[in-house]
Amino acid sequence: MCENMVGMRTESAPTRRPATDTGGRDTAVSVRGLHKAYRSRGPGGQGYTQVAAVDGLDLDVLRGEIFAVLGPNGAGKTTTIEILEGFRNRDAGEVSVLGEDPDRAGRAWRARIGVVQQDSRDLGELTAAEMVTATARYYPDPRDPAEVIDAVGLTEHARKRARALSGGQRRRLDVALGIVGRPELLFLDEPTTGFDPQARRSFWDLVTGLRDDGVTILLTTHYLEEAAQLADRVVVIDKGRVAASGTPDSLGGPDARTPLVTWLDGGELRSLRTDRPTEAVARLAHEIAAPDGEIPGLTVSRPSLEDVYLELIDAPGTTHQSTEEQQ
Amino acid sequence: MTAGTPDTSPARSAERSRLPGTLAVGLVRARVELLGFLRERDAMIFIFAYPLIMMAIFASVFGGEDQVFDLGTGRMEVNFPQYFLPGMIATGIMLSSFQTVATSIATERDDGTLKRLRATPMPAVAYFLGKVGEVLLVSVVQIAALVALAVLAFDVPMPEAGRWWTFAWVFVLGTATGTVCGVAFSAVPRSGRSASAVVVPVVLVLQFISGVFFPYPSLPDWMQQVAQVFPLKWLAQGMRSVFLPDGFAAVETAGEWQHLLIAGVLGLWLILGLVIGVRTFRWRRRDDG
């Protein structure tokens, strides 16, 4: 199907608003020229080579926004986040998180951030309530543990041992542990993996509620719908660099959102990208409609964030063959 | 959840800058550690109950004889359980400190507990205070249970009051050394799952060669040589000096209790463990960057 899709796109101008354009607002996170490479075994299993995980990354997260980092596995998302969280050091670049360098920041700084990591298998014999209550006491000004448990929807299960919670419940406990310290900046690394649709919805409400309370949120996710729903701005990372950035609606530039008309012509799939889909359909109705007046296999769609994202990832740095209407 | 925009009032800022004290967080951690330990059935059986079970079994098997092994000290006024008690106390201390700490840190590093803690403002020292608190409490209760078992079930006489001072310093030094060595050894297991498999054999071998099950002097010479290098032999010897009559000093290989040497060897291991522990302790897994 892909081969048949020939678009009417012109050269894409991928970024309407760059990841580093702060518009004069306060930044919670600022990254310039970030580099991080790992040692990796060579192809023959002999010797080591340096593999760049993050390769000249720039981004800014504004105070009070939900900022989503998208990208395929191995794009450098988690490496970047963990550098910002202070778990990893960097090879080069400038990083400022809440005004401090995470490499050198101390306890007072960690009291201002909240971290929900990607994989957590550590929840054991303590109950959800016990864990949240104990964690609250590491912080100078924590939220009320009972309120936090209620906010993540775990009140019913608060007295269950963490071990006995379901995957989704554990993830909500992770979030409770991440926000009980009343963070100014919350890192959410793939928070809803394994959620059912309903749990994901209520999680989104929770996150937007936190944002409305003034918490800055830096989110990575594999779910484009999640980014589209939650994020004020998104950045797509590929091969350790920013491939595109902007609001979820503008990502990929205006051309990426051009409606797509597809239909069958003699059993063959045809497609057309056009800003005037109604006109195109009218013309098709006139030219190739079946005796009953219907155009075979007709669809008209506007590319979702997911479509745009996939194009960004599939064809990094290339522009699509353009123009040429097929008919 | 909480109302409105973030409170940036001076009061709240002051609140924010007042981080909880290390000791206070250490107490929270001790409670967490203790709860985790008490609810982990394996730990309760193989750490807490093991010396008690061994004591009960060995003492029952050999308890019928009034005399302990013929070691050429002339008249024995000590029954087997009394001879066996100090070894079991030393074993208990080693399990509760070294084995618990080494396996739990290795597991917590592997499953991400440590990484999660590292992201909070919990001071690193508080984490170790929590371990120490848990170890102290578990071993005190364990030793009390061992002594109670020995007294009530096997009529073991208690030492005179002055001996408890010896007990106190041997206990504190032994527990500290075991804990610190546990922190250092936690770097050895490659994963949480292999932690027990790596730690337990070390503990078992040490138990056998250090004379906690058998009278140390009756062990082969080469075994004694090996055991002398490690702290458990000295810990057990220290405990024997508390619970056995002074006449039994003659049975020791050196013919005396060697308190100074006990303190010296345990202290040396304490320092060695500290140096290695500080250099090798990591919050993250090896494969995690």
UniProtKB/TrEMBL annotation, chain B:
Topology relative to the membrane, per the entry?
Answer: Multi-pass membrane protein
Keyword Membrane listed: yes
Assigned keywords, A-Z:
Antibiotic resistance, Cell membrane, Membrane, Transmembrane, Transmembrane helix, Transport
First and last residue of the signal peptide: none
Q: What is its main location?
A: membrane
Q: Which Pfam families match?
A: ABC2_membrane
- The superkingdom listed in its UniProt entry is Bacteria
**Transmembrane residues, as ranges?**
43-63, 83-107, 128-154, 166-188, 195-216, 257-278
Q: Where is this gene product found?
A: Cell membrane; Membrane
Q: Which residues form a coiled coil?
A: none
Stretches assigned to the ABC transmembrane type-2 domain = 42-284
* Family, similarity comment: Belongs to the ABC-2 integral membrane protein family.
What is the name of this protein?
Transport permease protein
Q: Which organism is it from?
A: Myceligenerans indicum
